[in-house]
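Structure representation:
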Amino acid sequence: MSVTFEVRVESDDWQNSGLQIDAVCQRAFAAAAAIGNVVGEVSLLLTGHGEIQALNRDWRGKDTPTDVLSFASAAEDRPFLGDIAIGFGVASGDATSRNIELDQHVSHLLIHGYLHLIGYDHIDDTEAAKMIALEVAALASLGWPDPYSI
């Protein structure tokens, strides 16, 4: 059971990072699908600071860069699950500040984004607890520690 994905890289920072993008995506989406029990297709955008800020501003009304954004598809568009965008600047900065490898943090962001695509959210404490538990379980299956305890 796996999620298929298409990656579009829009920032040289990703290319220069040394991250094995396809391998990280395959592992993270496989772990996510195993705990989320929903398979389908995901479009992934790996972008830079300016574009992720524009997306955040245009779609969420927040004029700041962010690490990850998810845009779920309509039910009638399934098996297409939706789009995930990850901004290099915030993602790499967060990995550095937490003293973790970029592949570990990107795995977390992909799993987090996938869970949003299949209907999970963290608007209230109850929903957040469910989503966090799934993230932690998926990351543990990859050998990564609980990101909320780092």
Summary: The domain at 4-142 is CATH 3.40.390.30 (Collagenase (Catalytic Domain)). Helices lie at 12-16, 21-36, 49-60, 88-98, 102-117, 125-141. The chain has one domain: 4-142.
